[in-house]
Each structure stands twice: as structure tokens, then as C-alpha cells.
Amino acid sequence: MKKSEGYAHGKIILIGEHAVVYGQPSIALPFPATQIRATITPSEMNNLTIECMFYKGLLNDMPELLDSLKKVIEVSLKRLNQPNAFLHIKIESTIPAERGMGSSAAVSVATTRALFDYYKQKLSREELLDIVNIAEIIAHGNPSGLDALMTSSSQPYYFIKNQTPELIQPNLDAVLIVADTGVTGQTKKVVQQIATKLNQTDGSHYQEMMTTIGELVKKSRLALTHNQAEELGALLTNTHSLLSQLGATSPELEQLVTCALASGALGAKLTGGGGGGCMIALAKNTTEAKHIAQNLTQIGAKSTWLYEMSDLS
Ligand code: PMV
């Protein structure tokens, strides 16, 4: 039986989420500890069916929650000149959904790759990002394009919306802890809430915060590439405070950030869209990182991961 697979992984925004939507820089890392696989086989019936953790059935009957997946399939099939494809598309994922790890973009990347492979068509990087970003408009409303890039690349990037992303070469002896609150955060909603704040008559204060986050990102790039873990930690914590003032945090995120800092982290912040989802903390070394992760688990983190920053050097 004909069969094709496409893969993508999660991503971690080190710094710059939300401000990146407004043209400020951001730094993001691939997160291969979490993965998505899309598998395509011919459909046994003459129809197009989907199987994933949220739904099993016809493409046309999919719930609204999966609109971006529907869009990515429709756009890909149109570009492949296969409007009446009879396929079964199965999505398996270890990327927790709606937790700031780019799961919607990763599903789109894996599915697009699998579809192009199934029809033996070349898929350029530009076309992949173009297709995924069309679906991301549905998932996020006003995507920066960062998630599409990061879930399909295996290297860290310094990213500014609508500019060619720059590869960066970290040089940092430190360990990042990623912790999941276990609570979903809806990126689209948080992005819209922040847009409302920026557009209100006295929104200039929030505009300034975006510029400040951009400055912190530029400093973080230096710290990340010059082995300055303490400086980077402080920059992450400062950014978290600005993101909180913008309304991107949640009680669960606050609890984990406070716990990480009290447990000796060099810095901590939410990562991704916020409103729930994941946070990150920076630790001097693996021993400290394990201790911090243990404390986070004890106060309710659903999952934790350790990310050796030296692996990126
Ligand atoms: O929550 P995630 O993983 O989709 O990340 C969103 C990142 C934002 O900066 C908030 C939005 C964007 O499009 O860049």
C-alpha cells in the first residue's frame, strides 16, 4: 500500500513572543523533544478522512478547532492539482496542543510535507512556509511567521517578521527547563487582547513595552552567543514582567515562574502565546536544572523537559 510520512517538531520561543507580531525581533529554538508525524495512505472509501487525537472522520465534518488543518490540506491539494484526493491522513503528536510550542504550525508542516511526498512533488522551503502561514492565519489571526519557520527548521533563529531570518550560533553553558502548566492557552485570543490594548487611545504605553521587549531581545542575542547566562536569565525575567503587564500570563504561569526563581533559576518567563501553556527557566547547570524541574513538578507542572543549551553550540 502506498504510504507517505511527514514530520515536524515543537519550538520554544526564548524571547520576543507577541512583540514579534509588531515587527520586533525574537529568538526561537527548535524543540525536537516533541514531534508530530503525519501519515498518508489511500482511503478505503472514496473520501478524505482524518484521524487525530481530537477527531476521526471525514475532512468535511471536522470541528472548527481543526479549521487550520482543513485549510492546509485544501491548499496543499489545490497546489498539487489533486482536488478529489481519496486519502486517509493520520496525525500522531507528542507536542502538547495549545501550550505555546507551535503545535498548530507543526501539524501543518508535517501534513504538507507528507502530502507533497505522497504525490512525489518537490516542496521548496518558501512554498512550505507559504502554505503553513495561510493555515496559521486561521489558527492565530495575525501570525508573525515564526512558528512555521521554527517547527520546520532544526536550528535556532533570530527572526523579524517579513525579513529573512538569521541563523544564530548559541554559545551558552546553561540548561533551559521547559515546564507545562497543563492548562491550555489560546494564542489567537491573547494576540487579539494585546491588539485591543495597543489600539486603545492611551495605547502608547503598550507600544513602548513592545519596543522595550525588542531591546531586551537584542541584548539576549549577545548574552546567548557570548556565554553570559546570568545576563540572559535577567533579560528573560524582565521580559516576563512586560508580558505579564501586557496580559499574556495566567495564575498557573505566575506560580511556575515564581517557583523557578525561588528555586535558584537565573531567569524565567512564559514562552509562546501565554494565557496558560508553557514557561521556561534558565539554570546554571544540569544539577540545578533537575532541582528546579523537580520543584516545578511538585507544585503542579504537568511535564518538564531539560534542554542543554550547549547542544546548540
Ligand atoms: O503559542 P504559539 O506556540 O503559537 O506561539 C505564538 C507566538 C506569538 O508571538 C504570540 C504569535 C506569533 O504569531 O508570533
Automatic annotation (TrEMBL):
UniProt domain GHMP kinase C-terminal: residue ranges: 223-298
Pathway terms, separated by semicolons: Isoprenoid biosynthesis; isopentenyl diphosphate biosynthesis via mevalonate pathway; isopentenyl diphosphate from (R)-mevalonate: step 1/3
UniProt GO molecular function: ATP binding; mevalonate kinase activity
Entry annotated with the keyword 4Fe-4S: no
Keyword field: ATP-binding, Cytoplasm, Kinase, Lipid biosynthesis, Lipid metabolism, Magnesium, Nucleotide-binding, Transferase
Biological process according to GO: isopentenyl diphosphate biosynthetic process, mevalonate pathway
UniProt xrefs under InterPro entries: GHMP_kinase_C_dom, GHMP_kinase_C_sf, GHMP_kinase_N_dom, Mev_gal_kin, Ribosomal_Su5_D2-typ_SF, Ribsml_uS5_D2-typ_fold_subgr
Enzyme class: transferase
Chain ranges of the GHMP kinase N-terminal domain: 69-148
GO cellular component terms attached to this protein's record: cytosol
Gene3D superfamilies on file: 3.30.230.10, GHMP kinase, C-terminal domain (3.30.70.890)
E.C. designation(s): 2.7.1.36
Listed name of the protein: Mevalonate kinase
Organism for this UniProt entry: Vagococcus intermedius
Lineage: Bacteria, Bacillati, Bacillota, Bacilli, Lactobacillales
Originating gene: mvk
